[in-house]
Prior knowledge:
Layout: H1 2-10, H2 17-24, E1 31-36, E2 45-49, H3 52-59, H4 66-71, E3 74-79, H5 83-97, E4 112-117, E5 120-125, E6 137-141, H6 144-158, H7 177-180, H8 194-205, E7 219-225, E8 228-235, E9 238-243, H9 246-251, H10 261-273, E10 277-280
Antiparallel strand pairs: 1-2, 1-3, 4-5, 4-6, 7-8, 7-10, 8-9
Helix pairs in contact: 5-10, 6-8
Amino acid sequence: MLFRRQEREKFPYEYPSHLRELAAELPKAPGVYQFHGEEQSVPLYIGKSVDLRTRVLSHLREPGEARMLSQTRRITHVRTAGDLGAQLLEAHQIKTLQPLYNKKLRRTHRICSIALDLGGVRYAFSNEPNFRLRTNLYGLFGSKMAAMERLRALADEHELCCARIGLERTPAGRPCFRHSIGRCRGACAGKEAGSDHDERLLTALRGIEVARWPYKGRVAIEERDGKLRQLHVIDHWNYLGSAGSLREARRIKGDAGQFDRDDYYIVARPILSGELTVREL
Length: 281
């Protein structure tokens, strides 16, 4: 709040009348918009909306954006066939162009996930070769520390043993600290069967389970808005690009690269729910 107040004092709000006409020319339709300053190579800001005109006009009434608005000289846009395409394009453009005023959707270089295997709890990272193909992954975190904090919170909530899940080092045969304060049911002290503990661990993790890619390879998600048709090409949750026809979509090969957390959050629900048409490529 202090920072925003200082920004308002340094850049007092004045309605950007020089942008009113540019905003009014935008369509009342889904898409992605960019604010540009004098420098042409990098946008000041990138956003998306299901109603471009209304959304951009709302920016002009935001005192907290006075600095950005005073620097803006042009507004460009790309139409999409719906909100899904707008979300995917916005995320891709922000990560690629790194606009000055966008704080969210910056590229995270490495994602960490909690993994379960025969050896117990492990941590898997998105730069590992087979990360996108793995099963039994839980949660998508920006760091190993964040993953451990979430696992610790689940341990507290479900009375799990921090020694058994690797959050506490305990000498063999000795109970973990949380057992001594009544927050562990005693898998470390022989008071609870290990299989019972591990079943509760699995139940606790199911709420943040990372869905397995349900197809053999790339797919195209179809989206329409009147005559505008788009096919969004996805490979193991990663967005590769959009096309206007199946023939063009099949030409989009690309490398899915590292697992992209934002792409996963955008496309997982539409794909798994079946609310949009999905075509295997």
